[in-house]
TrEMBL record:
Protein name (Swiss-Prot/TrEMBL): SDR family oxidoreductase
The NmrA-like domain, residue ranges: 2-263
Alphabetized CDD domains for the sequence: TMR_SDR_a
UniProt superkingdom: Bacteria
A Pfam cross-reference name: NmrA
Length: 291
């Protein structure tokens, strides 16, 4: 008997990796990739035995189709002002469809009752999943290494520097491939029910140290510039970022700067049986993005 696993947010940083890793497994697993746009999901069609389905929150029929016969769900929702409501809609649909297990992408600090906005949003979603009665596993990663590609690669390529208001605060950056690997284990093997996994890389680094690693990997001088918060917020506004989102990111950067994001865990090793990627390994693997 096959197992159908639905991955929502399948074109995102972690979702794409979950779909990829699930598609490479032996066994009777059917992978269903839930995407906001079928055009964005085109690249996923290259993966073996992956079914692409569109999820439109304004179209209940699309949700029903995506969840039909789904046994398990890897739930990933985008960072947005209606993130919590989107998650609750998916959870309600999962319950109606008889989904047996939800693996939900949360965030480090979601268990802090009076944490930052991002943490509070994830905490509310976690509580809703618990109340649903569906078996669950929460993935609580630290900051993604891939954020350097998404948010800093352009200035690194053009200027040889990148900017953040983080001072010399250290962060236990984690590779999205490792987050996905933990998620895949939770989706495909027993013993992860009711668990909340804090997922980090093997080291905590400041942006000054990341800049040094970038310099060594690319062979060109890369510098990190610690910018004042007002300057950072102004730059975010000029890029068209909503004010609430800019404030939420600045709140997160304060946590980094204060050194509260340096916690290390052995989750990747314990759950997957292998060590997590180091920052150097990540940069080597994605060197072309910064050249």
């Amino acid at each position: 008997m096959h197992t159908t696993i639905l991955v929502t947010g399948a074109t995102g940083t972690v979702g794409r990796e979950v779909v990829k890793q699930l598609s490479m497994l032996d066994g009777d697993i059917r992978v269903r990739a839930g995407v906001h746009s079928l055009i964005k999901g085109e690249n996923l069609k290259r993966l073996p035995d992956v079914e692409i389905v569109e999820i439109d929150f304004e179209e209940p029929e699309s949700l029903h189709a995506a969840f039909t016969h789904a046994d398990k769900v890897c739930m990933i929702v985008p960072f947005a002002d209606d993130q919590v409501q989107m998650a609750k809609t998916l959870i309600d649909e999962a319950k109606k469809a008889g989904v047996k297990h939800i693996v939900s992408l949360s965030a480090m600090g979601a268990d802090a009752e009076h944490g930052i906005l991002m943490g509070r949003m994830h905490r509310e979603v976690e509580e809703y999943i618990k109340q649903s009665g569906i078996s669950y596993t929460f993935l609580r990663p630290s900051s993604f290494m891939q954020n350097y590609i998404d948010y800093s690669a352009e200035s690194i390529k053009k200027e040889g520097r990148f900017y953040m208001p983080t001072g010399d605060g250290k962060v236990s950056y984690v590779d999205a491939r490792d987050i996905a690997a933990v998620g895949v284990e939770a989706l495909t093997s027993a013993g992860h029910e009711g668990k909340a996994y804090e997922i980090t890389g093997p080291e905590a680094l400041s942006n000054y140290e990341v800049a040094q690693l970038l310099s060594e990997v690319t062979g060109k001088q890369i510098e990190f510039e610690d910018v004042p918060e007002p300057a950072a917020k102004k730059a975010m506004a000029e890029e068209g970022m909503p004010e609430w989102m800019a404030d939420a990111l600045l709140e997160l950067y304060k946590v980094y700067k204060a050194g509260h994001a340096a916690k290390l865990t052995s989750t990747v090793q314990e759950v997957t049986g292998r060590k997590p990627h180091t920052m150097r390994q990540f940069l080597e693997d994605h060197k072309d993005c910064f050249m």
